[in-house]
Amino acid sequence: MSTEPQTFSPENQLAFIGRFAEKHGFEILRVYEDAGRSGLTLEGRDSLRRLLSEVEGGRADFEAILVYDVSRWGRFQDADEGAYHEHVCRRAGITVHYCAEQFDNDGSIGSTLLKTVKRLMAGEYSRDLSVKVFAGQCRLIEKGFRQGGMAGYGLRRLMVDEHGAAKTELRLGERKSLQTDRVILVPGPEAEVATVRRIYALFLSGEPEREIADRLNGEGGRTDLGRPWTRGTVHQVLTNPKYVGDNVYNRVSNKLKQRRVVNPPGLWVVAKGAFEPVVASDIFEKARAIVEGRSRRYDDAELLELLAQLLEAAGALSSLVIDERDDMPSSSVYRRRFGSLLRAYRLVGYTPDRDYRYLEENRRLRALHPEVVGSVVEGLERVGGTVDRDPATDLLGVNGEFTTSIVISRHRSTAAGSSRWRLRLDAGLAPDFTVAVRMNPGNETPLDYYVLPSIDMTEPRLRLAERNGFSLDGYRFDDLDFFYSLAKRASFTEAA
Asked: Where would I find the Recombinase domain in this sequence (predicted)?
């Protein structure tokens, strides 16, 4: 289905499919809709994945699949991928019909050629659109506008109109209200700005990141997410050019849902002095020179020798163990120099006891949690609810009536290949509801949601499989619209 701004497109497509079904004598049993999802891959298209799973598992109680056109089946960058998924359906005795195409999907040479051309055109459309969108984003960066992401400690996002006039400061999870609006970064509260400048002063005086973090924590300081300072968060403040007012884009790219790539500085898009700086440029350059000098003075052999010494001292290796050491380069240096941390581990004779991807996924999920909480807050406020978010625990108070905790459950696979999830409820916070986000295989996007009322949950830990019986699956939802509706307000006259 098309994206939300195309207000009537999904409805129009469904109406067209309905007319096609009536004309050809089909009865529509159910609708599988992935509204506003990218068609580049199956990731995030939970409804289509569920449909294909039913087909492959022999659970399909239908004889045909009606799709608006070839592009709605997918804009796969490999045209053979779309053909493969259709082949899976055809092998199960289920025909895919493209309702708006000018050919019958009857397996003839003509229809096969047209389908192939259409699949190639659909993929090419996404590639061409990606180039245009990237060019537009680069132009906005050069004009000094922020392109996504949280502001960070000591900074805030300010929404401006098309003429640059300030409108309002955006809180965590909030987005601009009009397409013509833009976002810039501005200095945050004076106390945070003073802390950022103090971090630079302490670092230039010779105090390492770990000691700075300990000092801030000892004084009761917290990051912009309400969490204790770590060596990594201090390091990020010292190395991010946004603190000197530079707008930097394309440091990391993930175009067309392909593999995430860390780009060399030559490919970065930089607008110097786009924002009001928090620290002076000469101070920032001195700090960056110190950071870069720590890694430049080591060759590969020296890096591996340091890693071997750390292994002997700590007994195990991980990115967190490496990043918390002040006397050696960060884990990102090892990734860049050796291609991956796993390869660096092998070169010093270390094999992790568990799959290294588990640690990477956990770190990614921890970083994802504030974004998920922000999207829930946005959804509740969109229907007219009021939300009070505890900065220390992320516990949400909704309308002053009930509290909600958001937990993310990592996907795991058993030795037999079955999916499993574990949930640990925040018993200490005692929320009225726990919204559990089950991640998909790969732990990249949410698969579904469980809205669990505390009054019905007697155990602090839950183990979930793909199917769990009505006692648990009765609380399962494909999206959070039902949960948002709990916060919806109605006028007295409407209620009457």
From this structure: 174-297
Neighbours of 126 (CB within 10 A): 20
Based on its alpha-carbon atoms, the radius of gyration of the chain, rounded to whole angstroms, reads 26
- Strand residue runs (E) in 104-179: 155-160, 166-170
Query: What share of the chain has pLDDT > 90, as a percent?
Result: 16
Q: Where are the domains of the chain?
A: 9-134, 155-292, 298-353, 358-492
DSSP 462: E
CATH number of 155-292: 3.90.1750.20
* Residues counted in the chain: 496
Bridge-partner residues for 253, per DSSP?
261
Tokens of 83: 């053909």
In this prediction, residues 173-193 reach a mean pLDDT of 85
**pTM to 2 decimal places:** 0.50
Return the SS3 of 433. Answer: strand
* CB distance 250 to 267 below 8 Å: yes
Calculate helix-pair angle for 46-56, 79-91, nearest 10 degrees: 40
Q: Which CATH architecture has domain 9-134?
A: 3-Layer(aba) Sandwich (3.40)
What's the rounded Cα separation, in Å, for the pair 41 and 85? 12
pLDDT of residue 66: 94
Measure the CA–CA gap between 225 and 463, rounded to whole angstroms. Answer: 29
236-to-153, 239, 243, 398 alpha-carbon distances in Å? 10, 5, 10, 33
| Mean pLDDT lowest among 93-107, 375-389, 459-473 | 459-473
DSSP state at residue 255: G
CA quadruple 349, 354, 357, 363: dihedral positive or negative?
A: negative
DSSP codes of every residue in 61-88: --SEEEES-HHHH---SSHHHHHHHHHH
* Burial class of residue 206, CB neighbours in 10 A (0-12, 13-18, 19+): exposed
8 A C-beta contact, residue 311 and residue 348: yes
Q: What are the residues whose beta carbons fall under 8 Å from the beta carbon of 373, sequence distance 6 or more? A: 173, 389, 394, 396, 406
Burial of 244 (0-12, 13-18, 19+ CB in 10 A): buried
Cα-based distances in Å from 290 to 151, 207, 293, 329: 24, 12, 5, 11
Residue 91: how many other CB atoms lie within 10 Å: 10
Phi, psi of 465 (to 5 degrees): -110, -170
* Alpha-carbon dihedral sign for residues 310, 316, 317, 321: negative
